[in-house]
Amino acid sequence: MTSEIDSLRQENARLMAENAEFKTKYDEAKGEITKLRAELRNRIEELEKARIDTTVENTRRDVENSGMMPRMLSLRLELQSWKKILDIPDSIVANKIVPANSKSSEKKIMNSFLDEVNKKRVSDEIRQRK
After folding, report:
1. What is the mean pLDDT of residues 65-81?
2. How many domains does the chain have?
3. What residue ranges carry the coiled-coil annotation (predicted)?
């Protein structure tokens, strides 16, 4: 009977130690949860403030844009009137004669120079391969 009581006491001591470990882990987890909840509340507050700021900014821009609508409409009307004034018939535009080979002498010189540079580069590449 004594050995049975001793084994029960040992089992009880083991269970009490295990229980103490669980309580410690529980307290640590509870502290971590409390910390995370506080961080989460702070983040939610920041997001709500940002949302309010965004709403205020959007409202301000809406008001600003509504003030620009009359200006935009007047510019559109002005553009249409200019288009009517500057409307050139296609027949006038089509009658302009543009010479097919009308390159300026500067362009001809530049093209010649670029052709020479390209030929030299290709020659150098061919020599390097050999």
Report:
1. 86
2. 1
3. 5-57
